Structure prediction request, 503 residues.
Amino acid sequence: MVIFFVSVLIVLISTIYYYFTRTFNYWKNRNVPGPEPIVLVGNLKDSVLRKKNLGVVIQELYDMFPEEKVVGIYRMTSPCLLIRDLDILKHVLIKDFEAFTDRGMEFGKDGLGQNLFTADGETWAALRNRFTPIFTSGKLKNMFYLMHEGADTFVDYIGTECQKNQEFEVHSLLQTYTLSTISACAFGVNYDSLGDKLKALELVDQIVTDTSYGKEFLMMYPTLLKKLNLSLIPKPIQNFFKSLVTNIIIQRNGKPSGRRDFMDLILELRNMGEINSSKYGNKTITLEITEEVIAAQAFVFYIAGYETSATTMAYMLYQLALNPDIQKKLTAEIDEVIQAHNGEVTYDTIKDMKFLSKVFDETLRMYSIVEPLQRKTTREYKVPGTDLVLEKDTIVIISPRGIHYDKKHYPKPEIFNPDRFDAEEVAKRHPCAYLPFGLGPRNCIGMRFGKLQSQLCIVKILSKFSVEPSKNTDRNLKVAPCRAIIGPEGGIRLNIIPRKLKA
Ligand code: HEM
Prediction:
């Protein structure tokens, strides 16, 4: 009997072991170098154990193979190709985009799956085609007044709080600004009190604080969630966005309200009828802009709109506090340009601040937020400059952090130096050496919006306050392991001091 049970156990363990290692010769058989995988978790052990952020783990894999163009890795049991070479990267993201239109993160459409970030194929193409005009500079200019109102309220709030205490945890502080801005610009929602705002933040923050294992499941079984029409997004969050959208449409009688926010623009699109995918897709499909589709975009604009910009600004203030000379130069530019615009901060005022733009770019060089970038082959693909042929449906990933900290592209990468973005320095680099917003036709659709809302808020803050390290500032900041994107572990503590008090 005992022998029988032991034999069954051995067979069971061997079968499980075989199942969770069955793919591990994939890259060896194709002569692609890479690290040894571990049963079940592949090369993502520290990310799966939530010891390190996925973006940091991928950066470490990038660093392990300095001489290689591509590295074969395993996300759990799934083989996937990490691209290090910038010429190959240019092919994947730009030149051969028709073979890489997909991201490979799809899930069920009834659970907000028809959103621009995770949708693939013709659905993505149709959405991108139709939603691109919402993000033009002209539309952004029209929305500027909403951001401006939000930034003023925010700076007034800091002014009041400053009288009680000068030390702030700036990451969560800035989230209250970006949440207001995205709520106002996207949906005309104004939070009456800080309490309401924090409640909404807590809800959407559940998505970013990734403690579930949905991501890992998707890596192992990439098509299953879509086939079963299951979602990665918790039900309460789905309901929040669905009822938000329904209520706004009712309030506006299904027509644009004249606020010129995203919701108005989406309603205009809806009234134009079905959307088609002809520009990016291989075949044309039509997609009706239903409330479900609007709610899916509402969800993605919220998540992408509030967290990425708040994190970028928090890191920017951190570096300005640690580098007082750079802060002084930036403050001088801000004062000068505002004066030249008769004391007003307009869309054009921000555009005239050239040093601000370099400080912003250098912040995202050091702290690119969305890591790693991902694409999926839509057909067999021969990797240029190698003998490797990728099968259809292979996941390809890119590590902006790996590239941004690679000494080959950025000497002394640990140093915060906005001069790296002087035009002549940029011209010396490979055009794909900087990719905090991704690159090519599937790059960040909200890039202009993200830049504008962040730069405006920084201008408003620095025209009234300066930032300094406090006694609790962590000089050795780590990336939070459990967040779906890059962010500071334990927040960022800084002193914010009214400028006139110092004079
Ligand atoms: C500092 C701010 C931001 C950063 C650093 C950022 C970064 C990124 C990155 C790296 C991607 C993936 C690009 C790729 O795969 O090539 C992305 C995609 C996307 N972002 Fe952003 N983003 C920011 C702000 C925003 C804002 C404000 C919005 C919307 C209001 C937005 C909406 C999106 C959407 C919808 C996608 C998916 C686009 C597609 O697949 O077609 N992002 N973003």
Residues 116-117, 128, 300-301, 304-305, 308-309, 312, 364, 369-370, 373, 436-439, 442-446, 449-450, 454 surround protoporphyrin IX containing FE (CB under 6 Å). Residues 5 and 227 are 37 Å apart (CA to CA). The chain has one domain: 2-501.
